[in-house]
Amino acid sequence: MCGIIACRAIEPAPGYLIAGLKRLEYRGYDSAGIAVTAADGTTAVFRTTSRVDSLTGLVDGWAGPLLAGTGIGHTRWATHGGVSEQNAHPHQDCEGRVSVVHNGILDNADRLRAELVHAGHRFSSEVDSEVICHLVEDRLLVSDDLLHAVSGAVAQLTGSWALVVLDARTGRMVAAAHRSPLLAARSTAGVFLASDISAIGDWVEEFHILADGDVIEVTNDLVWTHAGTPVAVPTAIPRPPRPTFSLTLEADDHMAAEILEQPEAATRLLEEVGGRIATGALWNDLGLPRFDRMRVVACGTSLNAGEVIGSALSRLGGLAHSSVVASEAAGSVVELGTLTVMMSQSGETADVLRALDESPEGFPVLALVNNVHSTLGRKVDAVLSCSAGPEIGVAATKTFVCQILVGTGLVISSLVASGRMDTAQARRLVNDLYLVPEQLAEAAAAARALLPPLVDEVRGAKGFLFLGRGAGVAYAAEGALKLKEITYRWAEAYPAGELKHGPLALVEQGTPVVVVDDGDPRLAGNIAEVRARGGRIITIGRAGSSIEVPLSLAAPCGPLAAVVPLQMLALGLAVELGFDADKPRNLAKSVTVD
Q: What range(s) does the Glutamine amidotransferase type-2 domain occupy (predicted)?
């Protein structure tokens, strides 16, 4: 949540900062701002509660001194303080010398603010981040060295932070990180900092990651310190290849584009890992021990994907699995022989990282992420990428599909490697996986043709039920989550057999009930129960459904193609209601705070 970019560049900074913030806007879009050094030794600050694009107009209207190549930028998801220009970053100290952008939450901000106010400091916002400006301001009175001042200031903080501090008087820039992602990179264009490589990938070929406790100065190079001691610059990591998908980061309607990219994303992933599944190599290459049960720890869409993966393990290998909400993982019992799979699209999800820190020692942990160089990917015993490529829409779509495909492939590979499945069966299952891209494409075509009148029919509904059985339950849950995220309508998902244990009371004349129909014969009775009470049934799945999608009853990951109409139903309803599906209210893509 929240995105940071900073640069010390040859060309004027606003161009880099605004372009980078556009690519970070998925991390938070309540407000945005930049601070840029000017030719007269001051700092020009531009802030807005509109979209990042509006910063361009503010900069174009600047009538002050020439803007230089050093600056910082931020796009905000509000935690402390409401959405207002006053609360937008960057924040400044009392004299306007120090400007700060910050991602994270400061647990001791209230105490520090009270102490600083008592000492005479003037605060202009409600946000916790502003205390950093005044702490640095005080430190500069003792030693006029920004690196020492920032090191001393962060030593007073508790919580999480990725921050960049800009000193207008000297033009110096210092950054620090603790439990929040930040990376640095150098190129012929300049030196850059960002929360995510996507923000600066056009200008650099490799990057360095700040570890917890690092404080660095950005000159024409990088001066790296840790806990007050100079250290070597960490090994550079090559920038990931630019996506080959049709989506560009400048495109509109990201969620729509990403839904339609799912066949292409699935094809690319299967080309990458498919040949190593039935041989056991996908599992063996991870170097993890044999396991007898799986524990999935995740949040939101990743948790739904994890349930599909765990169900595949139980169905195909007869092994137990459990799914744990990451925010509730503390104190959960881990049995001997358990493999913990921690799933996070970004690899920076705060609840997942906290669950990892609080996990008992001695049990292997595998991360399934979309960024193997993320904090989660660096802290576990082994890491596996879902290789979905950049996903800008806040509501996850193609990452869900790719997580399921690579996770199911991992399950099959582990069963082969442990002697629990023969290679002939594994090859048949892998062949089923190779059918998924075409199935996804057919499902999208069917949904485009059949959904518009259904969307028009249910646009006035205030609540929805989603039902499934067996492997369809997790997909029903994902459909309900997508609808809630981008239409702001109540949507609840249940196993269909639970209808008579409570949810059926919600059904009245016209209530939309969406059923993931994978052919389970018991669903017919559940559908009849809903119709008898006036519910509007929408079935997605086997022949005869409202929206037919290609299904293989033997498919290792269940009715995966059904997720495409579920995603498109949510998107179509959001558009019909006039909502921006790419930027749903109160949500951000990467949840990096508790």
A: 2-221
